[in-house]
Amino acid sequence: MVYLKIPNMNCGGCAATVTKALKSIDVDARIDVDTALKTVKLESKADVEQISAVLKSAGYPAEVQPG
């Protein structure tokens, strides 16, 4: 399980973009987005480097948070 803080994720559209980006590297990923807290809880086979890179590329740089 990976916990992410995405400071510039503000709305449902942002959440959809983040979800689409994460699904592009792991279609079976389980993603729980909370726009109010600007957090994502992610269960994925992708490694943290891949996750960070794809989110940065989508315009949503993320900070990995302690579980």
From TrEMBL:
<dbReference type="InterPro" id="IPR006121">
    <property type="entry name" value="HMA_dom"/>
</dbReference>
<feature type="domain" description="HMA">
    <location>
        <begin position="1"/>
        <end position="63"/>
    </location>
</feature>
<dbReference type="GO" id="GO:0046872">
    <property type="term" value="F:metal ion binding"/>
</dbReference>
<protein>
    <submittedName>
        <fullName>Copper chaperone</fullName>
    </submittedName>
</protein>
<dbReference type="InterPro" id="IPR036163">
    <property type="entry name" value="HMA_dom_sf"/>
</dbReference>
<dbReference type="Pfam" id="PF00403">
    <property type="entry name" value="HMA"/>
</dbReference>
